[in-house]
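Operator note (shift B, R.M.): manual run for Sporulation protein requested after the automated queue skipped it. Running by hand, logging everything below so the morning shift can see what happened. Input copied straight from the record, untouched. If output looks odd, do not overwrite the archive copy; leave it for review.
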Amino acid sequence: MDRSGVPCRRQHRPAAPPTGGEKVSKQRKGRLTPRGWLRLLFGQPPAGMYRRPAVYMTGSQMEIEHFKTIRTYDENKLCLELYGGVFTVYGDGMQILSLTAHRITLRGRFVRTDFSDDV
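Run finished. Output pasted below as returned.
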């Protein structure tokens, strides 16, 4: 009722358009605490990460890490056995610059590479 004693009807206002505040509250829920952030930063890497092969190429040099053995090598083809497959590099005038137990560095003109799951 209003002041005159006559029953009144309440008018419903339409809902206000979203302002984006809903997104902010969701983002805050997903935030990391400083402790959680440090735990992720300094946590242990996934199992097997350090045995995964890696190939780096800059200009006329290529470096391949984490291989098992060299299957074949000549100036046009290098075939390496990796943990989980065979990696082959084709090129022209390839030379081995350095060779360690798990890393090889090559120089030359690289044409293509192939990977096969067959060991």
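Quick read of the result: The longest helix spans residues 21-30. Residues 95 and 107 are 5 Å apart (CA to CA).
Leaving this for review. - R.M.
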